[in-house]
Amino acid sequence: MISSPSPWLPTLILLLLSLPIIIFFTSHILPPPPPPISLPDELADLALFRRAAAVESHSTRKPKSRLGSTNSKPKIAFMFLTNTDLQFAPLWEKFFNGNKSNRNLYNVYVHADPTVRPEIKSPGGVFSQDRFIPAKETHRGTATLIAAARRLIATAIIDDPANQFFTLISQHCIPLHSFQFLYNTLFEINSHQVAELKHLKYKSFIEIISQDPNLWDRYTARGDGVMVPEVKFESFRVGSQFFTLTRQHALMVVNERRLWKKFKLPCLKPQSCYPEEHYFPTFLSIEDRKGCAGYTLTRVNWTDSVNGHPHTYYPSELSPELIYNLRRSNFVQPYMFARKFSPDCLNPLMDMADGVIFRD
């Protein structure tokens, strides 16, 4: 008697025949994982970071500056991290150039993803071509965003020894106060006189959070036990991607090697992996928690976040009341910046610039 074939055999054959089709469509529907940071890119960054450390250690030698110039007054380095056009460049132009005396108090640096070169919206202005630094591709949820921020910091350190604060800005960020208000706040000016740097005790404004319901998932995003011994769970912190660092902390960041070995590893759980929100708060919390305010100067609305993105403001939401509300903070200092705004907010924001945003 001949036994009948297994009822599962046709299903198995169909599955095997369908496998190539499934693989083909999956590869075209799901985006491929971003590539790791290449060895040549890592070596180039390392050379840049060593230059920054060397410039600082030989600060008595007159620096050769490409982007800025030395000045006796301390400056703020504004570092724009972007992968799209600089939609709010006209608003930032008004922020920087609202007073002629501001021009020697800041420097601007732009890290633009080389695959999406932003259009220069202000030829000859603060976003002119010479403000763009040599950049590399960035990918969301990867250590490339850490590398880009460190690249900006190192460039600003090398460029001008007068840079004393280093503020990282998104292309979706807007200012909430005038430049002079921000400058006075950071440098603790009294009677409109800048105190000598050696008498000031600055703090970095970076968010450092130790209590978060998703902390364990974020910590194990690369796999269980991967982060030890360099980063123990009790030392792991999260915070905002955007910050303002003192020069001392900026130097510590570009000199750091030990934690970077862990944070640059690829993630197994992309939905929990935001390295740029983990690396900086963790490192500075370990090295100098008392030197950090523990909060950021950039206001973000997470009440209706989608896929890890915060609330986006649209023109219908803009009003003087919104600007005033965004400034309010539960911390010592008010918020100086806010994100995230849609590109079509530019015209309404420009209409409010002089009468609301820059009127402190």
Automatic annotation (TrEMBL):
Its main location: membrane. GO terms for molecular function: glycosyltransferase activity. InterPro entries: BC10-like, Glyco_trans_14. It is a single-pass type II membrane protein. Keywords: Glycoprotein, Glycosyltransferase, Membrane, Transferase, Transmembrane, Transmembrane helix. It is found in: Membrane. The chain crosses the membrane at residues 12-30. One of its GO terms (cellular component) is membrane. Pfam families: Branch. This is Uncharacterized protein. The lineage of its organism: Eukaryota, Viridiplantae, Streptophyta, Embryophyta, Tracheophyta.
